[in-house]
Every structure is written in C-alpha cells, then in structure tokens.
TrEMBL record:
GO cellular component: membrane
Protein name: Protein kinase domain-containing protein
Molecular function as annotated in GO: ATP binding; polysaccharide binding; protein kinase activity
Classification via PANTHER family: LEAF RUST 10 DISEASE-RESISTANCE LOCUS RECEPTOR-LIKE PROTEIN KINASE-LIKE 1.4
UniProtKB keywords: ATP-binding, Membrane, Nucleotide-binding, Signal, Transmembrane, Transmembrane helix
Lineage, highest ranks first: Eukaryota, Viridiplantae, Streptophyta, Embryophyta, Tracheophyta
TM ranges: 12-33, 280-300
C-alpha cells in the first residue's frame, strides 16, 4: 500500500455508451513497465508468502513496505519496516518493530488496506513509580502518524512542589515523588488538557516522557499511580504508516537500464532488451483499473449502428518528430492549446461547486467553453514534482489512442506555462459506483443484463489498451532530460490493486486483469471494493468474494435485487461471471486469463442469454 489513499470520485459516464479514458479518466498516473526485464531471484524472493508468523501470533496481508527474515529480504521493503521475532518477559516469541524512537514495539496487528499498525510497549515495563524505565514514544513523522483517538500523554518529572502557583490551569493530574531527600511533583496529562501550561512545564520540570494513549483510556485513569503507569506502558495504540511518492518512486525504477529496489540498484541489466523502445501498459492497476469504477457508465445504452466500429488500428507509434510538436504555439501533439484565462473563465475560476473529483495528480472541474462545449478540466497539483512529466505523458498517450470507449482529449494549456491544465470531453451521468452502492443507488435500478453489457464494453476497451503498443524514443528536452520517460507511480486505489503491487514490483497487463476481476465482483454484489464497516476479514471485497465462492456460498455475495434466486437464466449468467472473476483474482499472475480471453468469455456468456 503505498500511502493512505481515498478513492477519487469521477463522473465519467457517457449517455450512449461506456466511455473509458486511459488513466482513470484524467486522475491516475499512467503506469509503465519494460515487460522484458527478468527480475530473477529478486522477484522470487520478494513474492514469498505475505503471512508473518511469530510464536502464537499470525499477521496476515503483510505486503510492501514490510520485510523480515521469515517473509522476505530487506531489499523487498523499506528499512524502517522490518518485522522481527523477539522473546518478551515471559519468554514468548512476539512480532516487534521500531517506529522511530529506537525502542521496539510489539506488533499486535497490521491492517494493510487501511495502512494501520496496532502496537504496544511490550518491552518497557514500569519498575519504579518515580523512576520509570521506559522512554518517550517518538514517531518518525515522515512515515507514521497516530490513528484516530490516539494522543500523546505528557509525564513531567522533577517539577517543583509550588508548581500550582505558576500554572494557569491550577494543579493538573499529579503525584509526589521523593528522591535523595528531595520531594518533587510529577505532572501528567494530554496536550489538549495542558494547553498553555506546556511551555511552563517544559521550563520548570525535566523533559517529559511522552506515551500514546487512547481517548477512551483517559476517561477511566486509575487513581493508583503504579496502576496508571503500568497501563500506560502496556496499552495498545494505533499508528498509520505513510509511504510517500518519493519512497515509491525510488522503488519503481531508475531508468531503462537498471532495476531499482527501494532506492538501491541491484544490477539487473535490461540493455539486452529492446533498447530505447519502451512498451507502455496504459493502465495497469492503479491506472486502468480505477478505470472501471471511475469510468464505467451507468446510464448504459447500446451504441447506435451509425457509430459502427472505430476502424482504428490498435497499434500507435510516436517518434521524436512528433514530440517536437510539444513546443509549437497553438498545438500540443496535434491537439489545440487553451489559455489559462479561458479555462479559468470556463470553470468559473475553478469554483468548488464545479469540482468533479480529485486524485493523485490533480483535480477535475466541470466547465463550459465559449463555443458551448461542456468539458472536464483537469488541473495538475502545483506542488507535485512530476507534474510536467505527468502532463506530457497524458498528451503523448491520449492524443494517439482512439476508441469508441475512450474519452476524447480536447486540448491543453502550454506545457511551458506555470499552470498545467488538460481539457477532456465531459461525460454527464456519474460513475457506476454511485449507482451500485453510492448516493444514487436504488434497488433494481441497474438490471443484470445492463451490468453485463457494461462489463463487456469495459473489457473491450481494456483489451484495446493492452493491444496498443505505444512506442516512442525518450526525448531530450532542454532542461528536463527525461520529461516524457514513463515511470510507475504509487497513485493507486486500495481494493483494486494487484496484491503484488504492494511488494513494489512492476505491474503488467495481468495486474489489470486482477483489478477487472474486482469490478466484476462489484457488478455482481453492488458492494464497494473496500468497506471498513465490514468485518475486518471482509473489508477487501476480492478476499470476501474468493472466500464465498470457495465455500460454495455465491448466493451470499450476489445483490438480492438481480433475480439470482428467482430467474434461472440470470443465476447461470451470474455464476459464470463469478467463475470468471475468480480466475481473474488468482494470486499467481500466470493463472489469470488475458483481457482478450476475459472479453471473449463475457461475450460468450452474453450470447447464451
């Protein structure tokens, strides 16, 4: 899980057909891979079982960035996320890790989908009330933050006895200690309670010991000092881990010649491959597969015969002469350029009321051009260091692909300007998620045959994307040497991503297949891909579906409004689609079908109606 992520809301639904854009319609970065790199032993080592066992504790779903002697080598994760086994005071083996303070903490559980770790201070027991042997819990704030309901409790030792006359709030929670014939006060409380007295306490007392506590614990603090400190030294607390884009970027690669694992080159040479040519998987997990929820269309209608087949070859190529168009005034890769002021006016100065969604690289607004066209304007985040690269990537890819189910790129601002905006066809009818399990969901509003048709057209578009070998020679722009070099980003949505994504590997076409399997289950169940209100073993829809199918309990998964129990034809079709989804969700990529096979299977299922 590359950082904590919220699924972006996108509106893309065509009134006539399912329109799919290459990267989740505007919001997700386009993942890229060199399909011919042989990861050899690195892939083998890093793809080991993701279950960490230590003594009587089993931690499941332990993916990147975690590593440890019993699960995978250090180059498969980040150094700060080492899991190890140690003996506690009762000589029992327990899983432990360091969260930044130099002290190791017991790992009670890991919720990879939520990016959450449950810890407690197993090794720092209280022996003396007035001379506690445990130190502060100091988080590495670049990687961790406390979970909801957790706050630091400050314990100030060595405070003067007359402290109460110097504090604005009077005497907070305290007790008296006697050491070497001297009596002192010990003051304790959370930051929100101590408020303005914190700076005085820091001056008048010894540096505080800080320990995390849950707000519920604060409501019933023991009056006995020993019991109080014993609780503080043993209670569990939650932290979220944050894997930022920089950490992921170093892992995904360092150019076409070397493979980079967590920032360190390991010498996997790929120069015996196709050299300059890079095959772009225009939508691997985190790319095309948000596609499905973000870009599948709800008010589905059969495309009228007059539209016919697109007649566009799936093979598109780019060369350096094409790239030179990026600098021409009035056009960018053959698409029109708009002025910033024109798009600012079209979106009513990017009014929040026109906001359609946001994602890893930008926010999308609805707008209306002076010629009357309604458009979707994507504004890239200004504080994103990859914004120029992302901007040019989208133009290079989208300008060269044409398919009935792909959203049209109308144009952009100049790449040389400070404000980078992309202008897309606007699709008005909302996203399928809204109609399946969102604000617009109504029982029976989306019939099974409509859902099946949505799946078929989505599979058709994905098959097209997988067949589109977009080739280009990496350009050398003035001061941005690799401005259009495609690199994989960690912008992805939990629930849709190929599990191997979390181990920091390259994503392939089969990663899209996995994600499409999740979408098939959503269409069957009307459940969201991730729902933390479900039982913790069922938060992930893919895992829930696999368990139900293996237990021959498909009926417990299917939306009751689809007629699964009452209509034999519908039941057979849903069962066939569920079986296909099960194949797509296999943990081994080699066991998954190709998107072409998936599309063919769905057409066959529809043909049996």
């Amino acid at each position: 899980m590359c950082v904590k992520h919220l699924k972006p809301r996108i509106y893309y639904f065509h009134p006539i057909s399912l329109i799919i854009t290459i990267h989740l319609v505007l919001l997700i970065n386009i993942p890229v891979y060199d399909a011919q790199v042989d990861y050899g032993k690195y892939y083998s080592e890093c793809s080991k079982n993701a279950t960490f066992r230590c003594g009587e504790t089993t931690l499941g779903l332990v993916y990147y960035p975690f590593w440890g002697e019993t699960i995978r080598p250090s180059y498969c994760g980040l150094k700060e996320f080492e899991l190890s086994c140690e003996n506690n005071t009762k000589n029992n083996e327990i899983p432990v890790m360091d969260i930044g303070s130099g002290n190791k903490y017991r790992v009670a559980d890991i919720y990879s989908l939520a990016g959450e770790i449950i810890l407690n201070r197993y090794a720092h027991k209280l022996k003396e009330t007035c001379a506690p042997k445990f130190s502060s819990t100091t988080l590495n704030t670049k990687l961790f933050e406390y979970g909801p309901g957790t706050e630091d409790l400050y314990m100030f030792y060595g405070c003067p006895l007359d402290l109460h006359v110097r504090l604005k709030l009077g005497i907070p929670n305290n007790f008296t200690c006697r050491t070497r014939e001297k009596r002192t006060k010990v003051i304790f409380g959370v930051e929100s309670h101590l408020k303005d007295d914190l700076h005085r306490l820091n001056k008048l007392c010894k540096p505080p010991i800080r320990v995390p506590v849950n707000w519920t614990d604060l409501e019933n603090l023991p009056t006995n000092v020993t019991q109080l400190l014993q609780r503080l030294s043993e209670r569990k607390f939650a932290v979220y881990y944050k894997i930022n884009e920089t950490a992921c970027r170093d892992c995904w690669g360092a150019g076409t010649g070397r493979v980079c694992w967590n920032g360190a080159e390991v010498g996997v040479n790929s120069r015996n491959n196709t050299g300059k040519k890079i095959r772009i998987a225009v939508g691997t997990s985190g790319g095309v597969m948000l596609l499905l929820l973000l870009v599948i269309f709800i008010l589905y209608r059969r495309r009228k015969a007059k539209h016919g087949p697109s007649g566009i070859s799936p093979n598109v190529s780019f060369n350096s002469s094409t790239m030179s168009d990026l600098g021409k005034e009035g056009t960018c890769m053959g698409v029109p350029t708009f002025s910033y002021s024109e798009l600012e006016k079209a979106t009513n100065f990017f009014d929040s009321g026109n906001e359609l969604g946001s994602g890893g690289f930008g926010t999308v607004y609805k707008g209306k051009l002076t010629d009357g066209r309604e458009v979707a304007v994507k504004r890239l985040y200004e504080n994103n260091f990859k914004r120029v690269e992302q901007f040019m990537n989208e133009i290079v890819i989208l300008a060269g692909l044409h398919h009935p189910n792909l959203v049209v790129l109308y144009g952009s601002t100049s790449h040389q300007g400070r404000k980078l905006l992309l202008v897309y066809e606007y699709i008005p009818n909302g996203m399928v998620a809204d109609h399946l399990h969102g604000d617009s969901a109504q029982p029976g509003s989306l019939a099974w045959k409509t859902r099946l048709s949505i799946a078929i057209e989505t599979a058709s578009a994905l098959s097209y994307l997988h067949a589109s070998d977009v080739i280009h020679d990496p350009p050398r722009c003035e001061d941005h040497e690799h401005s259009v070099r495609q690199q994989l980003s960690c912008q992805s949505t939990p629930g849709y991503v190929d599990p191997e994504y979390h181990q920091c590997y390259q994503l392939t076409d089969k990663s899209d297949v996995y994600s499409f399997g999740v979408v098939l289950i959503e269409l069957i169940s009307s459940m969201p891909a991730v729902d933390i209100s479900r039982h913790r073993h069922e938060i992930n829809l893919a895992k829930l579906a696999i368990n139900k199918i293996q237990a021959d309990a498909l009926h417990e998964l299917v939306d009751t409004n689809l007629g699964f129990e009452s209509d034999g034809e519908v039941r057979n079709m849903i069962a066939d689609v569920a079986e296909l989804a099960f194949r797509c969700l296999q943990s081994e990529r080699e066991m998954r079908p190709s998107m072409e096979e998936v599309h063919k299977s769905l057409k066959e299922i529809q043909g049996r109606c």
